[in-house]
Amino acid sequence: MPVTDPIADLLTRIRNAIMANRKVVDCPRSKMKEQIVDLLTRENFLRGYKVVEEGPQGTIRIALRYGSDGRNVITGLKRISKPGLRQYRGVNSMPRVKNNLGIAILSTPEGILSNKEARSRNVGGEVLCHIW
């Protein structure tokens, strides 16, 4: 069965792996998902990732980050822009997530950026999700 919203599928796989206290989680590879996972790694929400070339499209193997007390760094994920209702924001109305303790991931003309990077580059775009 084809997935109609691959970004929501990625977030759900990460959320389910967190709830099951897994160290790694696999998801089908796409360029956008790889850019989102790379951004989460740069923002220290994930430990890292590796692209595994198997099957027709490949797989992204994501290593989740846990604190010294064993609690996960990611406490919440929320999909904002959905296929049925796209959410766009300009640079002046950029969302703040949990009083800037979390990040919003945006799809901009300059690529996949966090809300802080988009604000510093003075670009707006589609708000994909919030992560805190």
Describe this protein's structure.
There is one protein chain. This protein is of the alpha+beta class and 132 residues long. Helices cover 25% and strands 30% of the residues. It contains three helices and eight strands, in the order αβαββββββαβ. Strands 4, 5, 6, 7 and 8 form a five-stranded antiparallel β-sheet that branches. A hairpin with a 2-residue loop joins β6 (103-108) and β7 (111-114). The protein is globular. The protein starts with 5 loop residues before the first helix and ends with a strand.
Strand content: 25-35%
Task: Give a short account of the largest sheet.
Answer: 5 strands, antiparallel
Residue-averaged pLDDT: 94
Distance between the termini: 30 Å
Q: How many DSSP helices?
A: 3
Q: What gyration radius follows from the Cα positions, in whole Å?
A: 15 Å
Offer a quick outline of the entry:
With 132 residues, the protein is α+β, with helices and mostly antiparallel strands. The protein has helices at residues 6-19, 31-42, 115-121; strands at 24-28, 46-52, 59-64, 77-79, 88-89, 103-108, 111-114, 125-131.
Q: What is the element layout, followed by pairings?
A:
Elements: H1 6-19, E1 24-28, H2 31-42, E2 46-52, E3 59-64, E4 77-79, E5 88-89, E6 103-108, E7 111-114, H3 115-121, E8 125-131
Antiparallel strand pairs: 1-3, 2-3, 4-8, 5-8, 6-7, 6-8
